[in-house]
Amino acid sequence: GKENLPKDGLCTFVCNHPLGGQDGLALGYVLGSFYDGKVKYMVNDLLMNLRGLAPLCIPINKTGRQAKDFPKLVEAGFASDNHLIMFPAGLCSRRRNGVIRDLDWKKTFIVKSVQSHRDVVPIHFEGRNSDFFYNLANFCKAIGLKFNIAMLYLADEMLKNRHKTFTITIGKPIPWQTFDKSKTPTQWAQYVKDIVYKLKIEN
């Protein structure tokens, strides 16, 4: 679906988050190559500790030292002349009832894309982590553990996925005017999420 990449205007690229590592890097490479490096990630602020990656990132989760600057950082990102890459689930996909899928998508990309007049481009990334990862995440949820221990194993998951091939499917841009008052921003976010997973079926 590379022909669906807009050649004019700034966009918000939203994608499912199956891996938690390679999906972001691969997407950044594909879009960065097409747009001559004019892309930035909206990411978990823990990734700001990776100094080589930090200049490409805007920390979006409200944790750590960046918490008080969260609104200003997001506003600056959408006001910039960069395309933005977002994983609206915030966390990488989980397995529920045997199905690997993102958790609920946050509405930020809808609200800010409308405000900044950015079309939204849906992208599906085909991939999965190990059974160990999903079992650990579900176990922690079952015992009510709030700290995301599974996240600590994402580096291991990245190594397990070495030498594998992944498919990225790019959908048609959704004009920002689509996101009107007929649905709430949260409902529109779910609407776009459904489009992303339909790309997998169509592909």
Structure description:
The protein is α/β, with parallel strands linked by helices and 203 residues long. The protein is built from six helices and eight strands, in the order βαββαβββαβααβα. The chain has a six-stranded mixed beta sheet, sandwiched between helices. A two-stranded antiparallel ribbon has the order 5-6. Strand 5 and strand 6 (99-101) form a beta hairpin. The model has no long low-confidence stretch (mean pLDDT 86).
In short:
Helix content is 33%, strand content 17%.
Blueprint of the fold:
Elements: E1 11-15, H1 22-34, E2 39-43, E3 57-59, H2 70-79, E4 83-86, E5 94-96, E6 99-101, H3 108-115, E7 119-126, H4 131-142, H5 154-160, E8 167-170, H6 185-202
Parallel strand pairs: 1-4, 1-7, 2-3, 2-4
Antiparallel strand pairs: 5-6, 7-8
Quickly list its features.
6 helices, 203 residues, 8 strands, 17% strand, alpha/beta
Shape: globular
Beta-strand content: 15-25%
Mean pLDDT metric: 86
Structural class: alpha/beta
Low-confidence stretches: none
Please give the share of residues in helix.
25-40%
- Find the count of extended strands (DSSP E, 2+ residues): 8
Topology as H/E string? Answer: EHEEHEEEHEHHEH
Q: Could you give a short account of the major beta sheet?
A: 6 strands, mixed
Radius of gyration: 16 Å
Cα-to-Cα separation, first versus last residue: 9 Å
Q: Could you state the oligomeric state of the chains shown?
A: single chain
